[in-house]
Design a protein that fits this description.
The protein is mainly α. It has one domain. Helix content is 78%, strand content 0%. Helix 1 runs antiparallel to helix 3. The termini are close together.
Length: 82
């Protein structure tokens, strides 16, 4: 039973860490803000080559949410088996 609790807590912590990391990667950088500002001034669309790919951020968020949910499930199952 103690092993389940430890595993559940570890999954929760790793899930939160991945979620925070994904969230931070989604936030605009100074370069993103500068290109957005220049696009607003010029009235032109930002070229695709200057836009940042955020796929890794979405993957980290999804993985974090999944591990968090699994951790909650492990903890819930562990407490009902006592």
């Amino acid at each position: 039973m103690n092993g389940r609790i430890i595993a559940g807590v570890l999954l929760l912590l790793i899930g939160v860490g991945l979620g925070v990391s994904g969230y931070e990667r989604m936030q605009p950088t100074m370069g993103d803000k500068a290109t957005e500002f220049m696009a607003n001034i010029s009235g032109q669309k930002v070229p695709a080559s200057l836009q940042r790919d955020k796929t890794d951020a979405y993957i980290l968020l999804a993985a974090g949410a999944g591990l968090f949910a699994i951790g909650v499930g492990v903890l819930a199952r562990g407490s009902h088996r006592a």
